[in-house]
TrEMBL record:
Catalyzes the third of the four reactions of the long-chain fatty acids elongation cycle. This endoplasmic reticulum-bound enzymatic process, allows the addition of two carbons to the chain of long- and very long-chain fatty acids/VLCFAs per cycle. This enzyme catalyzes the dehydration of the 3-hydroxyacyl-CoA intermediate into trans-2,3-enoyl-CoA, within each cycle of fatty acid elongation. Thereby, it participates to the production of VLCFAs of different chain lengths that are involved in multiple biological processes as precursors of membrane lipids and lipid mediators. This is Very-long-chain (3R)-3-hydroxyacyl-CoA dehydratase. It comes from the Eukaryota. Belongs to the very long-chain fatty acids dehydratase HACD family. GO terms for cellular component: endoplasmic reticulum membrane. One of its GO terms (molecular function) is very-long-chain (3R)-3-hydroxyacyl-CoA dehydratase activity. It is a multi-pass membrane protein. It comes from Didymodactylos carnosus. Keywords: Endoplasmic reticulum, Fatty acid biosynthesis, Fatty acid metabolism, Lipid biosynthesis, Lipid metabolism, Lyase, Membrane, Transmembrane, Transmembrane helix. The lineage of its organism: Eukaryota, Metazoa, Spiralia, Gnathifera, Rotifera. It is found in: Endoplasmic reticulum membrane; Membrane. Its EC number is 4.2.1.134. Its main location: endoplasmic reticulum.
Length: 228
């Protein structure tokens, strides 16, 4: 009787299941994508730790000398590659909302390209070290989980890490991001520096942008997101 009941339940679950079989080509692509990013973030974490081990004083740690130079290229590549996840969601390759994924990614990409890469002073802060370390650990876990879960073979300890580590890593990462942005803001607050990083009027496009105030808006968005 139990066997018949179980058999009937399986048939009913398969009949009403909303999951579609994953195309082998799509699965292979997602495996390569997630695997590559897991490896990439491992490289970033390794370079970060290797650089920190060279510090010999609190001053070195306070200004994180050489950190950006060590991680700049892989960080730009693998953080920007996360935009592919928006495309994956939009095309239905994964079950995610494309707009939510975009919102989750854009703040990090902006920090890399619009703050640290654009304002060199923002490279010299422990905030960058905190942010990059938290990002790396989070993404190594996340992409490894995604890759293995394509074959339903994610070990229990990795699943546990995937759904618990963010409780600590997410707020720490936000602290690092805001610290880095504040370093950039303080360094361009004076008018001569602000003019260098801003778009001044008049110009042929009739468009102006005060970069300091743009960063104020970004910080406000962080606060709004945390409160909301």
């Amino acid at each position: 009787m139990d066997q018949k009941t179980n058999s009937l339940q399986k048939k009913r679950s398969s009949l009403f299941s909303t999951e579609k079989p994953v195309n082998p080509l799509i699965r292979a692509y997602l495996l390569i994508y997630n695997g590559a990013l897991a490896v990439g973030w491992t490289v970033i974490l390794y370079e970060t730790l290797k650089n920190v081990l060279t510090y010999r004083s609190l001053k070195d740690l306070r200004e994180c000398y050489g950190l950006w130079k060590s991680v700049e290229v892989p960080l730009k590549i693998y953080q920007t590659a996360a935009f592919m996840e928006v495309l994956h969601a939009a095309l239905g390759l994964v079950r995610s909302n494309a707009m939510i994924v975009f919102i989750q990614i854009i703040s990090r990409v902006f920090l890399v390209w619009g703050v640290v890469n654009y304002i060199s002073y923002a490279q010299l802060t422990p905030g960058l070290l905190i942010a990059v370390t938290c990002w790396s650990i989070t993404e190594i876990i996340r992409y490894s989980y995604y890759a293995l879960n394509l074959f339903n073979s994610s070990p229990s300890w990795l699943t546990y890490c995937r759904y618990t580590f963010f409780i600590v890593l997410y707020p720490l990462g936000v602290v690092g991001e805001l610290w880095t942005i504040s370093k950039g803001m303080s360094s361009i607050y004076s008018q001569p520096h602000r003019n260098h990083y801003s778009i001044l009027l008049p110009n042929k496009y009739n468009f102006g942008l005060d970069y300091f105030y743009l960063l104020c808006i970004v910080v406000s968005a962080y606060i709004f997101n945390l409160i909301g």
